[in-house]
TrEMBL record:
Keyword Nucleus: no
Cellular localisation: Cytoplasm, Cytosol
Function (record text): Reduces the gamma-methene bridge of the open tetrapyrrole, biliverdin IXalpha, to bilirubin with the concomitant oxidation of a NADH or NADPH cofactor. Does not reduce bilirubin IXbeta. Uses the reactants NADH or NADPH depending on the pH; NADH is used at the acidic pH range (6-6.9) and NADPH at the alkaline range (8.5-8.7). NADPH, however, is the probable reactant in biological systems.
Cofactor binding note of this UniProt entry: Binds 1 zinc ion per subunit.
Taxonomic classification: Eukaryota, Metazoa, Chordata, Craniata, Vertebrata
Protein name as catalogued: Biliverdin reductase A
InterPro entries listed in its UniProt record: Biliverdin_Rdtase_A, Biliverdin_Rdtase_cat, Gfo/Idh/MocA-like_OxRdtase_N, Gfo/Idh/MocA_Oxidoreductases, NAD(P)-bd_dom_sf
Residues of the Biliverdin reductase catalytic domain: 129-239
Alphabetical GO biological process terms: heme catabolic process
Length: 289
């Protein structure tokens, strides 16, 4: 490629580290990108010969065209706003913001600045999701449920569970269309680091879907699903292969957006879905009040 986009990675935890590795891989999408440095609150100086740079330098540098936001969820909105205002394209790990209003605002800012704003959704690139998508197509849903269990997660850093767990909601919306909220409850025992959020949703055809997030010490990271159709049931997903290079698949989509290779129709549908999921997450949070 004639032009390479200069990239800075903000936040070098699990996702940020994978992003830095991918940016230096021999992958086709990485040929369009040039990793300039990383931003971290910790004093790290350099990681595998990649230099740490200050946030101020990342924002003002002419060499930086793109920011990958891989920091804690609570900081996403602020970083996106700063980088868009500085005229940079942004890739952000989900959720882009912890409120629907903020997300809508950020999309408007990106459009106003003529910049790409891309919210990562690797869960839609998983083999399991591809399998489910094929399984549910053309079937008439009667009812369904999705339960996700995992270890504790700090709300102060990751936001309310409907936002930190928005990838599960994204699965349901991507499989069954836009949903409406019927009810939501949150059972919490802070001293035990335990929480259980139970959400009752409804499809446009008034079919019930239940989404449960349960987090606490000793709970294994697991997804249990059960969908009942007129023509039979689907209980959990068989082992359908691994999800290697899933962040690279996401990066490929982002590069296609940078190069203007994704149609306006697709971009509009994606934005609509993202905002719908964030709107639902906010309604759930209000409901759990």
């Amino acid at each position: 490629p004639e032009k390479k986009f200069g990239v800075v990675v903000v936040g070098v935890g699990r996702a940020g580290s994978v992003r830095m590795r991918d940016l230096r891989s021999a992958h086709a999408s990485s040929a369009f990108l040039n990793l300039i440095g990383f931003v971290s609150r910790r004093e790290l100086k350099c990681i595998d010969e990649v230099q740490q740079i200050s946030l101020e330098d990342a924002l003002s540098s002419q060499a930086v065209d793109v920011a990958y936001i891989c920091s804690e969820n609570t900081s996403h909105e602020g970083y996106i706003r700063q980088f868009l205002n500085a005229g940079k394209h942004v890739l952000v790990e989900y959720p882009m913001a912890l409120s629907w209003t903020a997300a809508k605002d950020l999309w408007e800012l990106a459009e106003q600045k003529g910049k790409v704003l891309h919210e990562e959704h690797i869960e839609l690139l998983m083999e399991e999701f591809a399998f489910l998508k094929k399984e549910v197509v053309g079937k008439d849903l009667l009812k369904g449920s999705l339960l996700f269990t995992a270890g504790p997660l700090e709300e102060e850093r990751f936001g309310f569970p409907a936002f930190s767990g928005i990838s599960r909601l994204t699965w349901l919306v991507s499989l069954f269309g836009e949903l409406s909220l019927v009810s939501a409850t949150l059972e919490e025992r802070k001293e035990d680091q335990y929480l259980k959020m139970t959400v009752c949703l409804e499809t446009e055809n008034k079919r019930p879907l239940t989404w449960i997030e349960e987090k606490g010490p000793g709970l294994k990271r697991n997804r249990h699903l059960s969908f009942h159709f007129k023509s039979g049931s689907l209980e959990n997903v068989p082992n359908v292969g691994d999800n290697r290079n899933i962040f690279l698949k996401d990066q490929t989509i982002f590069v296609q957006k940078l190069l203007g290779q994704i149609s306006e129709v697709e971009l509009a549908a994606e934005k609509k879905r993202i905002l719908h999921c964030l709107w639902l997450a906010e309604e759930i949070q209000k409901c759990c009040g």
